[in-house]
Specification:
By secondary structure, the chain is an alpha/beta fold. The protein has one domain: Rossmann fold, CATH 3.40.50. The protein has seven helices and ten strands. The protein has a seven-stranded parallel beta sheet with strand order 1-10-9-6-2-3-5, sandwiched between helices. The two termini are 14 Å apart.
């Protein structure tokens, strides 16, 4: 794992998006195609903005995403399908394939469908973030580090739900769904390369716990410490509690 610290979220996003784009281009050059995982949420705004501005042969790219609420309409502003359609899919040429999570269908059957699809192809590049409670995707603490199931149904804890409300995606805490379909920890870490974008001071405690503390399922994103192909992009605010400061 590498850590890079930038002055602000905009510069962070440019760095993370450019690095992700180069990794995708490398995969296409080496094997003729690339499989990617995209994250959502406010942490990904600048990274995705840069990614869509890059020159990439998207016709050779297959996309999965990390998670989706169960029972939330795709038209809802908080829907991650809605998010990716607006901020990514509508901004790039047609991809080879797009595999979005349908949280409105039978959740267990949807997991089976996605598990079969993603098991057919190794993931080249995953874009992820770290939640205020240290979650990776929607794997809240204590996260399941052992399951080999690529996608699974999870229950969202209160801190996770408060984060979603606090970011303005929902009108009230009660409106935030209590369950979601999430990519598992082991599936995420199977990715050859991981780009982790984490801006904002509200993430500083989670960043410190996950990047400088022991690897623990109580701090799910701490597993990234063990991934040799992971680069974590921080801004000065999210990195403010780290004891060992690293320069970009």
């Amino acid at each position: 794992m590498q850590i890079r610290i930038y002055e602000n979220p905009q510069i962070l996003g440019k760095g993370a998006g450019s690095e992700a784009a180069q990794l995708i281009r490398n995969a296409i050059t080496e094997q003729g195609h690339a499989t990617i995982i995209l994250a959502t949420g406010t942490s990904q705004f600048e990274t995705l903005k840069q990614l869509v501005a890059e020159e990439i042969d998207w016709s050779n790219v297959t996309m999965f995403h990390l998670d989706e609420y169960i029972g939330l309409s795709e038209a809802h502003p908080a829907s991650f399908r809605n998010y990716l359609t607006q901020r990514f899919i509508s901004s790039v040429p047609a991809l080879k394939a797009i595999h979005l999570i349908n949280g409105e269908s039978d959740a267990e059957e949807e997991c089976k469908r996605l598990n079969e699809l993603i098991s057919r192809q190794p993931v080249d590049v995953a874009l992820v973030g770290i939640g205020e409670n240290g979650h990776l995707a929607f794997n809240d603490p204590p996260a399941d580090f052992e399951t080999a199931q690529p996608y699974l149904v999870v229950e969202l804890d209160e801190q996770c739900r408060k984060q979603q409300f606090g970011e303005g995606w929902f009108r009230s805490l009660e409106d935030v769904p209590r369950h979601a379909i999430s990519m598992s920890i082991r599936q995420i870490t199977k990715s050859k390369q991981i780009i982790c974008s984490v801006p904002d001071s509200r993430k500083a405690t989670a960043v410190r716990d996950c990047l400088e503390g022991p690897v623990s399922n109580m701090h799910p994103a701490s597993i990234l410490q063990e991934h040799p192909g992971c680069i974590v992009y921080l801004d000065e605010n999210s990195a403010s509690l780290l004891s060992a400061k690293r320069e970009s």
